[in-house]
């Protein structure tokens, strides 16, 4: 089944977009785990988050959280905890060279 924008025209207002952004921001902030990482996946059937992870997606979420913390200083400590998680788990440096690594493979 294919979606056609022409067949399914929907009007989206500025308020709709604002509400959507607010809800997305709240979801992001509410899905930072106590260890500082983001919930990567959630399985509602078993009401559990698997232990799988994706470093690149973690970093993309970290970037967004950083932008939010710039706009709302109450998020600074949450962002700091998240950055500590990222650096503790994925960041590897050697001299002047650094990379994001998982399973001995460089991601960035």
Account of the protein in words:
The chain is mainly α and 108 residues long. The protein has one domain (14-106). It is 45% helix and 11% strand. It is built from three helices and three strands. It has a three-stranded antiparallel beta sheet with strand order 1-2-3. Strand 1 (91-94) and strand 2 form a beta hairpin. The model has no long low-confidence stretch (mean pLDDT 85).
Could you name the key traits of this structure?
mainly alpha; 3 helices; 108 residues; three-stranded antiparallel beta sheet
List the helices and strands and how they pair.
Elements: H1 14-30, H2 55-71, H3 76-90, E1 91-94, E2 97-102, E3 105-106
Quick overview of this protein structure:
The protein has helices at residues 14-30, 55-71, 76-90; strands at 91-94, 97-102, 105-106.
What about the largest sheet? 3 strands, antiparallel
Low-pLDDT segments, ≥5 res: none
Shape: globular
Indicate how many domains the architecture comprises.
1
- Strand share of the residues? 5-15%
Using only CA atoms, what is the Rg?
A: 18 Å
Number of strands: 3
SS-based structural class? mainly alpha
Mean pLDDT: 85
């Amino acid at each position: 089944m294919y979606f056609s924008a022409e067949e399914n025209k929907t009007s989206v207002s500025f308020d709709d977009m604002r509400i959507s952004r607010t809800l997305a921001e709240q979801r992001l902030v509410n899905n930072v785990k106590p260890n500082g990482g983001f919930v990567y996946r959630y399985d509602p059937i078993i009401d559990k988050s698997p232990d799988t992870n994706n470093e690149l997606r973690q970093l993309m979420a970290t970037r967004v959280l950083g932008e939010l913390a710039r706009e709302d200083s109450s998020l600074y400590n949450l962002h700091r905890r998240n950055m500590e998680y990222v650096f503790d788990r994925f960041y590897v440096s050697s001299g002047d060279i650094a990379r994001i690594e998982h399973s001995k493979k460089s991601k960035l």
